[in-house]
Amino acid sequence: MQAGDSGSCCCGGGSMMLLSVLLVSFRIGFAVGQPMEVAQQGDGRSTVTLATPMDGSMRFPLFPTDYETLANRSTRVSVLQALHTFEQVKLLPFGEAIMRVTETELNNISSYFVPQWKWGAASAFPAAPIVILGSSVTGGSGAGESTDPNERAAGTADLSRGYSIRQSWGRHFVDFLNQHLVHHHHGVAKNVSIFYKSAAGPSYFSMCTESFIPPDTRIVLVEAPSRMISSLGIKSDLTRIASAVRRVAPNAVVVFVEWPSLQHEAELATLPNLMQLDAAAMELKVDTLRVDHVIRAIASHCTHGSDDPTYSKKASSHKDLGPRLGKLNREFPCYHQLYANRAKDAVHPNPWGHQLLGALAARHVARALVAASTATTVATTAAGLAAVEQHKDPPSPSAPSNGQLEICYLSAPTLPLNMSASHGNWNLVDEGQNGIKKLGYLSRQIGDVLALDLLQDFPRKYTSSNCGFLGVTLYYLLSTSTPDQGAFKLTCDGCRCEELSTARQELVNPFPLIETNANLISIYSGNNISITAQTQFLAYYSNTSTCTLHVTHIPSGSSLPKLKRMQHTQQRSRIRIDWLFIAPMPPSSLAFYPKQKPYTRTAKLVRYANSSGCRM
Prior knowledge:
Layout: H1 15-32, E1 36-40, E2 46-50, E3 76-79, E4 82-84, H2 96-99, H3 103-107, E5 110-111, H4 116-124, E6 130-134, H5 149-154, H6 169-183, E7 191-196, E8 219-223, H7 234-248, E9 253-258, H8 272-284, E10 287-290, H9 291-300, H10 318-331, H11 351-372, H12 378-386, E11 407-409, E12 426-430, E13 439-443, E14 449-453, H13 460-463, E15 467-479, E16 487-493, E17 496-499, H14 505-508, E18 513-515, E19 530-542, E20 548-554, H15 562-567, E21 575-584, H16 587-596, H17 601-611
Parallel strand pairs: 3-7, 6-7, 6-8, 8-9, 9-10
Antiparallel strand pairs: 1-2, 3-4, 5-10, 11-21, 12-13, 13-21, 14-20, 15-19, 15-21, 16-18, 16-20, 17-19
């Protein structure tokens, strides 16, 4: 549904009608609901408490398989905007360790920071869309492994075809959510859309967010893989996506979903990235789902995989597993049995991991929706909806356009190439695997120049003015595992480009020298990553119709101190440029720098523009 459609949840002249709908919806929910309580905690979280049935069973079991699910067929599921044909997904056999996880342990993974009125609105409008955004985990990486128990026990299962959107966690989320809702006398989800971009962080979806999220969206689940974001950049990345969602769908609940990596299994509870995730979510009033908590609970109940259907007898000894997996099997039994390719893939869940993640996400959402569907939430929900037009998120220096024009080149073939200004051999390549595309322009020769026309697709009403600032975000391959990764330098012709000054500039938004060999970057060194990273900067144009960005391939280590640079030599070099995002910078964001960061290079450029008579 697009902006202006009658089904939008946004307030306006129809506030009284909306309130009437809410009253009817909550009266129905209250009539059939169970006793519940929503309490606000001192740390900003809302604790959702629902009465336990008399027989002591969970009101929200992890796998609600005994519930009627015929209504599931009325849910419209789309993947990358293509309709997904419904197929009932079967529950896989799980080991005793998972089935012994307690209700308290399950509840501990959920933090409810979202204002109560938003969950109330989400409960009142079951036909409004639910959107899932994520990376390769959301795309179903690892979900396509064979689940045949005989093949897995013998160690002969084909693990090469890992992707399966039909068995992905988002698909399981739909099934389990509907089962919970039907059991609690709620309407099933009518519209669920799944979008994913492999090797991309959540901030990818902050660009042209309208392409993914309709304005009447009620719930947005964001896969927030903290492994792909440095602890320094996690707050800015999550702020960017949360702000973008709220600009497009102001009533939507946002939930950050974190699937943990095996690389730091021993320190999961204290990882700086996960602590930053919780802190950012609390400040942004966004829910979090920390799956690492429940996986550690599973490990505490485990008996070294003997009861686990994913267990391979061929890899039964610590010696056969190898040093890293042998250590996992000793210290975290069953933990690694949820990861792809028998835990050789430390990032992606296998079919059991996907089903577990989908079940946990469905349980988080179902608990909140059922708790919100009572008469006690009518006042807060109605008041929240009525105030939505007056509520504005505080401006962020890195926020793109606040509703202004956005130009998104979300695939390499669409990049605005200036062929006459480009030099060398740049080849359009697809370095994806298992049918997942990873398109980019690849250079293998130092000195190659890729020229991008930043004003090519801007309407003349923007470029015909005397001057202006553009926020430019360039995406590129950053890897510790890809051999011969090089570096590149950014320069501009016809306009002036400058860094967008932030704390730890060289790590968060490097400019003008960008290193793509992640082994030389302290925050990534020692990790096995291959991601599409980004750098954001400013472009100032004045009395010109051209603004060309030059990407020049330079040797890896060019940004290192001279002594270290001399020690770092490489015979071959490669860089890959993937996407580009451009938007006019709003005056409120520009004004931030001279006032709050007056000595930065960004502030100096803004003052220069003002002194030149540029008025924006």
